[in-house]
Structures are given as structure tokens and as C-alpha cells.
């Protein structure tokens, strides 16, 4: 497997369909995998917080979530094949799970969103077996959730607690479970439930999904400051590399 390192974060050199095949192989071999889809915000957080960097480096796979990472890789002359976002990976995994009748656990989001997302998955992916759900507003020290996941034996656990909560939860709990894919998927349950709309394709094609999200949820502006800071660091690295 080939990796491209950006500011200490090792990104898997893959596109969405090969990545999903890799995960399918892991499921069939009953391997355990911790997946992080990392955007510039995560890379900046890791750069500033050593503990978080260590956690990221524990992941089995880190993929490029967002055009910012893909562009950065290109600028640093180590191009990546494309974006592998949390939402797209979740949808592809649901399609795979539908085909192969895989078992799925949904962890995260508000109770109402979770129920809506579950209902949509049951309708659109009837052969997926949902073996358990848990909303994302629980007591952190509640080990019962990991215990329930262990007993339910899901092939895939989608963890939608937002960054960095979902990555922390997975790193603290994955060792309790024997196998399965654990992937942090951010606001994906909200999109599946229809509570939050994803950017129309037009915006996505122009690589402006981030702007659409900002306009829809202006409260995200503070978090989005990570983007220009990330761009600045990449430009500095590029300048250093070319001297
Ligand atoms: N969330 C949760 N528990 C919490 C905080 C957040 O389950 O304690 C959920 C929230 O309801 C939403 C998701 O986590 O469904 C975070 O979505 P966001 O779009 O902020 O994800 P990010 O951009 O951080 O990946």
C-alpha cells in the first residue's frame, strides 16, 4: 500500500472504489480497521496537538476528505488519486453492505436524526442488517456501548460524533471489539436523514462544497479558519521544497 505524507499525516494513495474494495477484503478476512477521513481541519489539529497526531497515526487508513488535501498533495508533487470523503465512503459501504448482506451499527447524531437515518437506510438498502443503534449524546464513560457493539458483531460501525470526538471514541473503544470496520463519518447521518443538505453537484464540481456548507451553516466559520491556515503551511512547505 502506498501512502502520501502531508504534515505528518499518512494519507492512503487510493480512490473511492479501490478503497471500498480494500475494506471489503478486510471484512471478509474478519480484520479490524480504524478509518479516518481527514480534511485540512484535522491535519491542522494534529499539527497543533501531539496527542491527536498520535491518535491519527493509530488509524489503519487515513483518506483525503476534501479538495484541500488533494490540492496540497498536488502542490507538494505527491499527487493523490482524488477525494475519499466520509459521506461518499459511507454511501459506498452501504451499497456494498446491501449487496453482501453485511451487518451495520449506527452510532451518533441526535436521537431523531438517528431514527430518520435508520429508516432511510432500511428503505434504500433493504438487505443491510442494522444490528444496533445508539445516539451520540451519551455519557462518555459508558462502556456499555462498546460492549453492545462487541455482542452485535457488526461488519461496519459508522461513528457520527463529529471531529475529533468520533476519532477519540473509536481509538478508545476499538480494542474491545473483535473485528469490523470503524469509520468516523461526521455529519453524514444528518445528510442521510435529510436534516442537512449536501451541496448540489454543481457546487461539488466547482470544488466549492466548503463554501456551500459555510453559507448554509454560518456558525462553522470559526472552524473553517483552519483552511487558510492549512493553505499557508502548504505554501511554506512548497517554497522550502523548491529551494
Ligand atoms: N454529535 C453527536 N454527539 C455530540 C456532538 C455531535 O452525536 O456530542 C453529532 C451531531 O449531532 C452531528 C455530528 O455529530 O450529527 C457532527 O456533525 P458535523 O457536521 O459537525 O461533523 P464534522 O464536520 O465535525 O465531521
Describe the fold and architecture.
It is built from 13 helices and eight strands. With 243 residues, it is α/β, with parallel strands linked by helices. The chain has one domain. The chain has a six-stranded parallel beta sheet with strand order 4-3-8-7-5-6, with helices on both faces. Helix 8 links the parallel strand 7 and strand 8 (180-184). Helix 1 (16-28) crosses helix 5, helix 2 crosses helix 3 and helix 2 crosses helix 13 (226-241). The radius of gyration is 18 Å and the shape is globular. The mean pLDDT is 95. Bound molecules: uridine-5'-diphosphate. Uridine-5'-diphosphate is lined by residues 108-110, 136-137, 160-163, 165, 186-187, 189-190.
What's the arrangement of secondary structure elements?
Layout (H helix, E strand, L loop, with lengths): L2 E4 L2 E4 L3 H13 L3 E7 L1 H9 L1 H9 L2 E4 L2 H9 L10 H15 L2 E6 L2 H14 L4 E6 L9 H9 L3 E5 L4 H9 L6 E5 L3 H6 L7 H5 L3 H8 L4 H4 L1 H16 L2
Parallel strand pairs: 3-4, 3-8, 5-6, 5-7, 7-8
Antiparallel strand pairs: 1-2
Helix pairs in contact: 1-5, 2-3, 2-13
The structure holds uridine-5'-diphosphate.
Uridine-5'-diphosphate binds next to helix 9.
Amino acid at each position: 500500500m502506498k501512502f502520501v505524507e502531508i504534515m505528518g499525516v499518512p494519507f492512503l494513495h487510493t480512490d473511492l472504489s479501490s478503497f471500498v474494495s480494500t475494506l471489503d477484503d478486510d471484512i471478509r478476512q474478519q480484520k479490524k480497521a480504524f478509518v479516518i477521513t481527514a480534511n485540512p481541519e484535522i491535519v491542522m489539529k494534529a499539527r497543533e496537538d501531539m496527542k491527536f497526531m498520535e491518535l491519527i497515526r493509530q488509524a489503519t487508513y487515513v483518506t483525503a476528505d476534501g479538495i484541500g488535501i488533494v490540492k496540497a498533495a498536488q502542490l507538494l508533487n505527491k499527487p493523490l488519486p482524488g477525494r475519499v470523503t466520509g459521506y461518499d465512503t459511507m454511501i459506498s459501504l452501504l451499497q456494498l453492505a446491501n449487496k453482501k448482506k453485511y451487518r451495520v451499527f449506527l452510532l451518533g447524531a441526535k436521537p431523531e436524526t438517528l431514527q430518520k437515518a435508520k429508516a432511510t437506510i432500511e428503505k434504500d438498502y433493504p438487505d443491510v442488517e442494522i444490528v444496533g443503534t445508539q445516539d451520540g449524546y451519551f455519557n462518555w464513560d459508558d462502556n456499555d456501548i462498546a460492549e453492545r457493539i462487541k455482542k452485535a458483531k457488526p461488519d461496519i460501525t459508522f461513528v457520527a460524533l463529529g471531529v475529533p470526538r468520533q476519532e477519540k471514541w473509536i481509538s478508545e473503544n476499538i480494542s474491545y471489539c473483535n473485528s469490523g470496520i470503524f469509520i468516523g463519518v461526521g455529519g453524514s447521518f444528518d445528510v442521510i436523514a435529510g436534516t442537512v443538505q449536501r451541496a448540489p453537484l454543481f457546487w461539488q464540481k466547482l470544488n466549492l462544497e466548503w463554501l456551500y456548507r459555510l453559507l448554509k451553516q454560518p456558525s462553522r466559520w470559526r472552524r473553517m479558519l483552519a483552511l487558510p491556515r492549512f493553505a499557508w503551511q502548504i505554501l511554506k512547505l512548497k517554497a522550502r521544497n523548491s529551494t
